[in-house]
């Protein structure tokens, strides 16, 4: 969407928009990336971007009807003002067999006048995290095309000086570049050195750099709170939706509402039932008053059992009825009676992450954190801290997001945050690392421990492949985010318990990820050509559409 809007803005600036008669869109992707792309809602996003919509402000509820209208009427309203004829079959071309050398996710827009004369053409690459670059602006940490209005981009970002190490002269002394932010960092080591030298936290370093880019204190606060508000809205939407299934021929059932009903006492009034029990820690027997979510066979049976327990039998005995227990009682290893265990932190993290990813899978608004497929990890961990740990939510949100952002920048600069380049380690792996650092920072850990948390977060995701079934960002993606969130908290806890004794630095892990990405077969890079995408057969009873 952002690429489409950037292109239209350029046409407007050049005074060409009104002359456009035809637009041709070519998408360059390897074979099944096209499948993944179409299920990332790529055509919808591009066309609505060309109509002038912005990913941050578009009313997501209108996307399906607007897309259907474009297809039905065969017309496109360029920039929201200029009508042209647009035929999807004729004007959008998927180059299944070609990948442009700049990046695997490439697209070319070309516009023609009434006589078929080429008015303008440009290539764009979606490199993850909502960032769009083209050949000219292809540099690390590129923020040029994060904003669609070039004139409002700060010079340091435009010329990329902010991503360089602290500049030094021939004598090795630091030199100040007026364009450069006060605390430039290019690696975990240089970031750590800055925190020590200036006695600052990682969040403070990022914050002061943002001030340098022309944002006021209030601007930064508002932007951070806006990001959090979208994340929180997304969780709320995911747990409160009445839709039962996700789009796509897998026919996947949405689980977040059911998970939330089981867990909640009612953070969002009206969503949780009034009779639901409080959360208890540890190994909790099946609660008596919880209602069985519709279609949950296991829980229905447990509830039925609970009613029978009123006869006075103890729960274990009641739940050991032969009708429910699988396994022989004539065996030295007796079958285990079913129990329901709640581990609140894990269950909440999972529920929040699944909620976000189900919203993403259904085309709703999420924060690319750092990417769409991995959008659930960071909101889940931050939500958990805000709800269960923080006594100052605003301070927590600022610290968490600024710290996580610093780690994301390190990955973007040193490796990749694009699954098309590095597989799922670049998406859920990086999200896990960012969330782990954010969690540790909010727990008051020192910068070295925070970066070590980030290291553990990525180290145990190295090699994670991308193999979504049927090209849908659903399986394994949705559950993978819940595991990413749980792993992030575990990584932070391990780091905080390690007293800064460790064997691998964050920079070493980022470099290992880069090498792993380079060596990884293209079959595991968002192409759905192998792994689960190949071994799992889509049920034949589900009609293809
Ligand atoms: S497997 Fe991972 S990288 Fe691939 S689409 Fe799913 S979440 Fe994204």
From TrEMBL:
Pfam families: SDH_alpha, SDH_beta
Any single biological process term in GO: gluconeogenesis
Key words of the record: 4Fe-4S, Gluconeogenesis, Iron, Iron-sulfur, Lyase, Metal-binding
GO function terms (MF aspect): 4 iron, 4 sulfur cluster binding; L-serine ammonia-lyase activity; metal ion binding
Cofactor(s) essential for the protein: [4Fe-4S] cluster
Keyword Lyase part of the UniProt annotation: yes
Pathway it works in: Carbohydrate biosynthesis; gluconeogenesis
Domain Serine dehydratase-like alpha subunit: 197-533
TM region(s), chain numbering: none
PANTHER family documented for this protein: L-SERINE DEHYDRATASE, L-SERINE DEHYDRATASE 1
The protein, known as: Serine dehydratase-like alpha subunit domain-containing protein
Organism: Phlebiopsis gigantea (strain 11061_1 CR5-6) (White-rot fungus)
């Amino acid at each position: 969407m952002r690429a489409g809007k950037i292109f239209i803005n350029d046409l407007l600036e050049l005074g060409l928009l009104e002359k456009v008669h035809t637009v041709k869109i070519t998408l360059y992707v390897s074979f099944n990336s096209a499948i993944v792309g179409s299920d990332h809602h790529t055509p919808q996003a591009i066309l609505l971007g060309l109509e002038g919509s912005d990913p941050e402000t578009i009313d997501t509820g209108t996307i399906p009807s607007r897309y259907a209208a474009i297809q039905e009427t065969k017309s496109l309203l360029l920039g929201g003002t200029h009508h042209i004829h647009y035929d999807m079959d004729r004007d959008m071309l998927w180059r299944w067999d070609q990948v442009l050398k700049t990046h695997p996710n490439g697209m070319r827009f070309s516009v023609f006048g009434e006589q078929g004369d080429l008015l303008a053409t440009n290539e764009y690459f979606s490199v993850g995290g909502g960032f769009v670059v083209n050949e000219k602006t292809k540099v690390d940490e590129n923020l040029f095309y994060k904003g669609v209005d070039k004139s409002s981009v700060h010079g340091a970002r435009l010329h990329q000086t902010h991503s360089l190490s602290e500049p030094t002269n021939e004598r090795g002394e630091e030199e100040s570049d007026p364009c450069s932010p006060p605390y430039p960092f290019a690696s975990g080591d240089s970031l750590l050195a800055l925190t020590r030298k200036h006695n600052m936290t990682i969040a403070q370093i990022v914050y002061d750099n943002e001030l340098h880019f022309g944002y006021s204190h209030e601007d930064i606060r508002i932007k951070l709170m806006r990001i959090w508000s979208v994340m929180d809205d997304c969780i709320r939407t995911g747990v409160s939706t009445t839709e039962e299934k996700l789009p796509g021929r897998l026919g996947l059932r949405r689980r977040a509402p059911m998970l939330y009903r089981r867990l909640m006492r009612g953070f969002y009034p009206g969503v949780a039932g009034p009779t639901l029990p409080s959360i208890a820690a540890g190994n909790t027997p099946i609660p008596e008053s919880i209602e069985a979510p519709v279609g949950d066979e296991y829980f229905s049976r447990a509830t039925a059992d609970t009613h029978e327990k009123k006869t006075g039998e103890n729960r274990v005995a009641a739940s050991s009825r032969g009708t429910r227990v699988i396994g022989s009682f004539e065996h030295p290893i007796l079958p285990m009676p079913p129990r329901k265990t709640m581990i609140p932190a894990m269950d909440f993290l999972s529920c929040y992450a699944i909620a976000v990813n189900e919203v993403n899978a259904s085309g709703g608004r999420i924060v690319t954190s750092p990417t769409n497929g991995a959008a659930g990890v960071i909101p889940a961990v931050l939500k958990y801290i805000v709800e269960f740990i923080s006594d100052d939510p605003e301070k927590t949100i600022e610290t968490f997001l600024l710290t996580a952002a610093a780690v994301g920048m390190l990955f973007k600069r040193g490796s990749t945050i694009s699954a098309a380049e590095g597989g799922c380690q670049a998406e859920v792996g990086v999200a896990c690392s960012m969330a782990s650092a954010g969690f540790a920072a909010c727990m008051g850990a020192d910068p070295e421990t925070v970066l070590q948390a980030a290291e553990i977060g990525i180290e145990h995701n190295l090699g994670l492949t991308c193999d979504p079934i049927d090209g849908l960002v659903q399986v394994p993606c949705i559950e993978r985010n819940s595991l990413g969130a749980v792993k992030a908290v575990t990584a932070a806890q391990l780091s905080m318990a390690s007293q800064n004794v460790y064997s691998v630095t964050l920079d070493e892990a980022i470099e290992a990820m880069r090498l792993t990405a380079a060596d990884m077969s293209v079959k595991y890079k968002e192409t759905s050509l192998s792994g689960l995408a190949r071994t799992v057969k889509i049920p034949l009873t589900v009609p293809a559409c």
